[in-house]
Amino acid sequence: QVQLVESGGGVVQPGRSLRLSCAASGFTFSNFGMHWVRQAPGKGLEWVGVIWSDGSNKYYADSVKGRFTISRDNSKNTLYLQMNSLRVEDTGVYYCAKNNWPHYCDYWGQGTLVTVSS
Amino acid sequence: QSALTQPASVSGSPGQSITISCTGTSSDVGGYNYVSWFQQHPGKAPKLMIYEVSNRPSGVSNRFSGSKSGNSASLTISGLQTEDEADYYCSSYTSSSTLVFGGGTKLTVL
Question: Among residues A55, A62, A104, A59, which one has the least CA distance to residue A79?
């Protein structure tokens, strides 16, 4: 069965960096695009970005463009989200989600909490 | 990348039917048949309920159905059950090769 496990969340000061990981199992990771989606406390879902199966293309939400970078290591079945220049408004639960062809998220991890605070 | 528009809340009694709307533009909902719906219970991860406007994943009750007309999509839940009480989000692919979510709708089963 598909399993996605996020890690790397924690408390970080504004302006600092953090890297999240998402370990995937139960499917052929290298065949599928992967998304990051976040949810601020008490708020709705916000799409963060996507990376294609081979890492050749990446797309980001305007709110994180230039600060966040999505990458993947298909040999380790792991997805990453490098978050730089963090802001208070980046606080929330970050989910990784598997893309199913062509354009929808079919499986989600349980999320990891990122808190940006001084 | 403006969020899709959903009503903040809807409610219904057990056994009744409700519909949640999701309004976008011709650059997202209206331009593609790539609308999805997700159910989220408090403290839990979202769960896919509908994909590509009207398709149900294996294991999702046939009480859930989706449709689209123009720039708006809808999720209908028939025969409401107490366990349907949750937050519901729509999502659409966009012309910028991104995804966009709706603001979410809280469903209360009275």
Answer: A55
pLDDT per residue as tens digits for the range A88-109: 999 999 999 999 988 899 999 9
pLDDT of residue B62: 97
Over residues B37-46, the pLDDT tens digits come to: 999 999 999 9
Give the distance from residue A109's alpha carbon to the nearest chain B alpha carbon, in angstroms.
Answer: 7
Of A47, A108, A110, the CB nearest to B98: A47
Contact call for residues B90 and B22 (beta carbons, < 8 A)? yes
Q: For position A103, what pLDDT does the model report?
A: 85
Distance from CA of B49 to the nearest CA of A (A): 9
Q: Is B52's Cβ below 8 Å from some Cβ in A?
A: yes
Closest to A24 measured CA to CA, from A86, A82, A99: A99
Length of chain A, in residues: 118
Q: Which helix (H) or strand (E) holds B24?
A: none
Task: Calculate Rg over the CA atoms of chain B.
Answer: 13
